[in-house]
Write a structure and sequence with these properties.
The structure holds 2 protein chains of 2 kinds. In chain A, 31% of the residues lie in helices and 19% in strands. By secondary structure, chain A is an alpha+beta fold. Chain A folds into 2 domains: 89 residues, no CATH class; 95 residues. In chain A, strands 1-7-3-4-5-6-2 form a 7-stranded mixed sheet. The longest helix of chain A is centred in the last third of the chain and has 24 residues. Chain B has 2 domains: 107 residues, no CATH class; 94 residues. In chain B, helix 1 packs across helix 3, helix 2 runs antiparallel to helix 3 and helix 3 runs antiparallel to helix 4. In chain B, strands 1, 2, 4, 5 and 9 form a 5-stranded antiparallel sheet that branches. In chain B, strands 3-8-7-6 form a 4-stranded mixed sheet, with no helix packed on it. By secondary structure, chain B is α+β, with helices and mostly antiparallel strands. The chains are: A alpha+beta, B alpha+beta. At the A-B interface, loops of A face helix 2 of B.
């Protein structure tokens, strides 16, 4: 069961008898919860975008010159990892539903082969009409795989997106804020140290949770071998 | 079986396993590497075993008045096996003379660019006022030849390469080396050295085997 924002706030307050929630307005606390939760998701996506990985379909584009706006649909894309053809209207030479769309940098499209697309401003643009050259024969919908960013936490009754086991990734920064607001600077070093340890555990979980996946050396979780001795 | 970039690149990625850095491996770059390799292999065959990859050209009917201006050939990388076929259908080998040299026998001709110039057996530069010739008469005779195309650029994964099947190992291992080199510092130097060694060996093997396809016999007892 996911925790609500109020439960996180309560938990942060309970961490020290000196915490005074009245020092920080609730709206600010909610913004900090949103920020911390998103930071945790972005941290996970840098290490292993599959850890919180999701997939969704884009909106249906109307013309072959249109792009797909990821900020609108699916909306919660933090790191885009893969795109596939979902729906085709008419037919497109050499393209079938399920085909991978190669994501390229616009500055160097030759690095991959058709069908290609590039990402700019959170939109996917087709390169050189390789997903259809007219609006009667084109790819209309893509399926995208991505690491998400959680939705804004707007009210205290709202549930967080982050799994329960990682609520400390949100609660601890919040308790740091309360300590900082109350000028209890001597506590902050301890909170920072605790957050560092929680962060390390979080990183290791991101790396190791799919340890059974067969993958190249470059993507093998960096789990340290036992020290000799 | 025809060699396609898709199969070769997928096989090469597995060959380079587990040192493949997918984010560094560019299919576009590998296709360009395959373009060079395909041309290299075709050049090897063209110089040593042209019959393996040459195609039959369309017979060129001889027209007496055209002998001086030559006959257009199919544009190609190289030409082989020119034959003069007389009106009775009997083929005779045409000696191809280098530019500036005289042929040692007739029928003879020169290839300049993509044009075949028959050499006048009477050495009169095809002067119409000089009597009859023994070759290139224009009575139903023709020139027959074979040619080898320059491989086209490899631009798609499904394209068929010009290289014959036996070049597969050499092409694949060359791509493995390319992938390992592209994958950067995480690849042990020993692995790269072994891959480079294997590529050299396979190139030698290909060179050796391409001429031994037919007429191979046992060497026991020699």
């Amino acid at each position: 069961m996911a925790r609500t924002a109020q439960q996180i706030i309560d938990r942060s307050i309970q961490r020290s008898a000196l915490n005074n929630p009245d020092l920080v307005p609730t709206a600010q606390l909610l913004q900090y919860i949103t920020l911390s939760e998103r930071q945790a998701y972005m941290r996970a996506s840098r290490i292993n975008p599959d850890y919180f990985g999701k997939d969704a379909v884009t909106a249906t584009r109307a013309a072959f010159t249109d792009s797909w706006d990821l900020a609108a649909t699916p909306g919660d894309v933090g790191v885009l990892t893969r795109a596939e053809v979902q729906t085709i209207v008419g037919s497109v030479s050499g393209v079938a539903a399920g085909d991978k769309v190669k994501l390229i940098g616009l500055r160097w499209p030759e690095i991959d082969v058709a069908p290609r697309a590039y990402v700019r401003g959170r939109k996917i643009f087709v390169y050189a009409n390789e997903l259809g050259a007219n609006s009667s024969n084109m790819v209309t919908v893509l399926k995208v795989y991505y690491s998400p960013v959680p939705a804004t936490v707007a009210v205290t009754t709202q549930s967080l997106t982050i799994p329960d086991e990682w609520t400390d990734m949100v609660a601890v920064p919040l308790s740091r804020l309360l300590a900082f607001r109350d000028r209890r600077l001597d506590e902050i070093a301890g909170i920072d140290e605790e957050f560092k340890m929680i962060g390390q555990l979080f990183d290791e979980s991101c790396l190791a949770f799919d340890h059974g996946v067969r993958r190249p050396i470059s993507a093998v979780p960096a789990v340290q071998a036992p020290a000799k001795g | 079986m025809a060699l396609t970039p898709l199969n070769l690149i997928e096989d090469a990625k597995l060959g380079a396993w587990p040192f493949v850095r997918d984010e560094f491996v560019s299919p576009g770059a590998l296709l360009r590497q395959l373009t060079s390799l395909d041309r290299e292999v075709v050049t090897l065959f063209a110089t040593q075993a042209p019959e393996r990859i040459s195609a039959q050209g369309t017979d060129i009917p001889i027209v007496a008045g055209t002998n001086g201006t030559g006959y257009a050939l199919t544009a190609a990388k190289s030409y082989t096996d020119f034959r003069y076929v007389d009106s009775s259908g009997i083929p005779v080998e045409i000696e191809i003379a280098s530019e500036g040299d005289l042929p040692s026998k007739h029928p003879a001709g020169r290839v300049v660019g993509s044009t075949f110039y028959p050499i006048d057996p009477t050495d009169r530069e095809w002067s119409a006022t000089f009597g009859n010739r023994a070759f290139y008469i224009g009575d139903g005779d023709k020139v027959r030849y074979r040619y080898i195309l320059e491989p086209v650029r490899v631009t798609s994964m499904s394209q068929t390469l010009a290289s014959p099947d036996e070049a597969e190992s050499y092409l694949r291992e060359s791509l493995v080396l390319g992938i390992l080199l592209a994958s950067g510092e995480g690849v042990p130097q020993e692995r790269i050295a072994r891959a480079a060694q294997l590529v050299n060996q396979l190139r030698k093997d290909l060179n050796h085997e391409m001429t031994k396809r037919a007429g191979v016999s046992a060497r026991f007892g020699e």
